[in-house]
Amino acid sequence: MALDLAQNATAKYQNTGSVTTSENKIFLPESQLPRNWYNIVAELPFDVPKPLHPIEDRPVEIEDYDWLWPLECLRIELQEGKYGTDALIEIPNFIAEVYRRYRPSPLVRARSLEKYLGTTSEIYYKREDLNPAGSHKFNTALVQAYYATLEEESNIRSMVTDTGAGQWGAALAMACETLGLGCDVFMIRKSFEEKPYRRYLMRMAGANVFPSPSELTQTGRNILRDDPSNSGSLGIGMSEAIEYVKEDRSRRLALGCMSYYAVLHQSIIGLETKRQLEQAGRSPDLMVGCVGGGSNFTGFIAPFVPEKIGGSPIEFRAIEPDSIPTLSQGEYRYDWADFSELTPRILMYTLGHRFVPPPVHSGGLRYHGKTPVLSALVKNDVVNTRTYGQKEVFEAGQVFLKTEGVLAAPESAHAVLGAIDAAKTKQKQVIVLCLSGHGYLDLKGFSDVLDLDSSN
After folding, report:
1. The whole model's pTM is what?
2. What is the reported pLDDT for 375?
3. What is the pLDDT of residues 168-198, one digit of tens each?
């Protein structure tokens, strides 16, 4: 049954032609833009437990957090109504219209990388770096802002969030500008200081951007009092964002990675990829992606998961930094999503909500936990994991630039290295990676790690 429904998720988009094996890019016409998201939790043969109240021993109810999130986001997170039962969730017309500005995104055969590696495997990458904000994040930022505008009686005027490398903050800033909302972003301090161009991009789009920890919130002030040089984390930024929302009822929180609603919206990546591979006459042997909170990777693999559960040998590999080994070394337990214990408790792999990651350059991966649905997939042996060090990741990013002419974001370069490693085996495979964002605003990090300022 699950397999049948997953096939139905792409069956509506009739194949308008096949591609030859000599083509480099596989495009879908706008007419084949998916009109539904794929709701993976409705089809899994195991439960993804719902969030618990942050203090009381009971499940979260809508009324507990209707002041914090847009109501539709909250319904998705709590799997209420159709979100707990329906495999396909219709994409609103407005969202589909904006998606068409940059979607469907191309699936590209990495022929130059294959030649460089001398591999018999085929490597494909799904380009999520070609949208207005330069990463997959806009896929859900737009929807979250749209949900906020539907609540006319709440008079929501701005969205508040945290951001690591700034990709999520930039996406939300552009989404809010599209929908006439204000935007306030708490950017982890290390990225705020080292990635000024993302900060400039957010401010050009109309957002207010604050370094986190900051003096704006009690959470930030307490942390800075004890550790004035604290480099920040996504958990700290989330706590500051929640505290900031609490101060003004016209504000709402937006989350780019930990939430299930973000995973749902990111399933458009996987739906397009599935159709593109079908047009190419290919079935993936391995799908690879980087994981911070886990939304891009989970949305990428979601439409393929029923095949795996149904017996297909397809492999899903989640890549994380060896300095933040949440899936490979973390505990599977209930924990808070934020530093100050303001969010619901969720069942996930976690390094502990007070964990402050080392100041690595992959700011979007500096998070202590993983989204519950990805955690459940790992726990049930549907997804496996691998970790890499920062220098080897950045070297893989350099190889990808030299061969494919695309500079992957530091986060996405983890997926690139995962694909390269897999292609080095003698076994011929079809390897597909999610290129979740570009790295053209991350060049300072590449320079620091690869010593690009040294003499020739």
Report:
1. 0.92
2. 97
3. 999 999 999 999 999 999 999 988 998 899 9
Q: Residue 48 is which amino acid?
A: V
Total domains in the chain come to 1
Please tell me the distance from the alpha carbon of residue 300 to that of residue 283, in angstroms, as a whole number: 14
The single residue listed with the structure tokens 């550790």 is: 227
Q: Nearest CA to 74 among 83, 193, 93?
A: 83
Which tens digit of pLDDT belongs to each residue from 220-243? 999 999 999 999 988 899 999 999
Residue 390's Cβ-count burial label (10 Å; 0-12, 13-18, 19+) is: buried
CA distance 392 to 398: 10
Question: 78-83 contacts: CB < 8 A, separation 24 or more?
Answer: 78/50, 78/51, 79/41, 79/48, 79/50, 79/260, 83/39, 83/41, 83/42, 83/264
> Residue 10's closest CA among 276, 267, 268, 271?
271
Place of tokens 């998916």: 34
Higher pLDDT, 367 or 10: 367
Buried b or exposed e, range 257-279, using 16+ CB within 10 angstroms:
bbbbbbbbbbbbbbbbbbbbbeb
**Does some domain include residue 156?**
no
Residue 16 has pLDDT above 50, yes or no: no
3-state secondary structure of 280: helix
Token readout for 332 is: 């599977």
Domain-located, residue 158: no
- Residue 235 Rama label (left phi>0; alpha psi -120 to 50; beta): alpha
CATH number at residue 97: 3.40.50.1100
149 found inside a domain: no
> Which secondary-structure segment (H or E) carries 450?
helix 443-450
**Closest residue by Cα to residue 99 from 91, 107, 89, 90:** 91
In angstroms, the CA 397 to CA 395 distance is 5
Has residue 8 been placed in a domain? yes
DSSP 101-149: TT-SPPEEE-HHHHHHHT-SSEEEEEE-SSSTTSBTTHHHHHHHHHHHH
Q: How far apart are CA 373 and CA 103, in angstroms?
A: 25
- Residues 320, 268: Cα–Cα separation, whole Å: 22
What range defines the domain where residue 27 resides? 2-41+91-135+260-450
Tokens of 310: 């149904």
Residues 394-405, mean pLDDT to the nearest whole number: 98
